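Lab notebook: predicted structure, single chain.

Context: the supervisor wants predicted structures on file for every construct in the current expression panel, including those that have not yet been purified. This is the next one on the list. No modifications to the sequence; it matches the entry in the shared construct table.
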Amino acid sequence: MFARAGSFSLWVWRNKPEIWILAGLFLAGLLLLAFGHIAEEVLEGDAATFDQTVMLALRNPADPSDPIGPPWLEEAARDITALGSYAVLGLVFLSVIAYLLMSRERATALWVSASVIGGVLLSNALKFAFARPRPELMSHAARVFSSSFPSGHATLSAVTFLTLGALLASTHESQRIRVFFIGIAVAITIAIGLSRIYLGVHYPTDVLAGWCIGAAWAALCWTIARWLQQRGDIEPAKADAVKAGDRANG
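Prediction complete. Output recorded below exactly as produced.
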């Protein structure tokens, strides 16, 4: 059953790209609505009880500055949270752009650049607009330099890793490999967001909002890229290009 479902989705991917474009727009719209709902709850103060309950559940009742769990868990959380930092994401981004340029995929490099840089600008604009103070229930287990809503780590990890996951998935025909790449991107994004809550540097609603707006931006950028591929304005996905070449030679 799963094999048939995978074959059908792959057939739709190749032969009915407009369906995927509409699905991408629909997903982006749903995520934007979710972000708007979370933002409204935060602005009205209705999210305070939820945020406080979750954050205190992750702290030592005798010492709110101490996250629950052994010391190695806190160190692991710091390592994971670093994956969403500007330094790490910047290195990943520049490495991917260099690879794409070396592969003569200039239009794809431009698309990835627009996706990631646009996500950075969007994240910082939202932080400036909402200017939500950082959590004050406990001391932070990591240094912070900006306002709280939405979480920049959650937003930018969603933008970067989901965009790159979609890019890697487009290089393979295998449905399992496509799902694997997207699944890894989602898992890393979720882990980074959870680490921000665990370390006490963000409210849960900051992270939820960051995931929503970051994933919405990634879905929108992917949808635009798919549309441009159909127009021939950027390079087609490698798996699609190979398939087209096979049909031409056959």
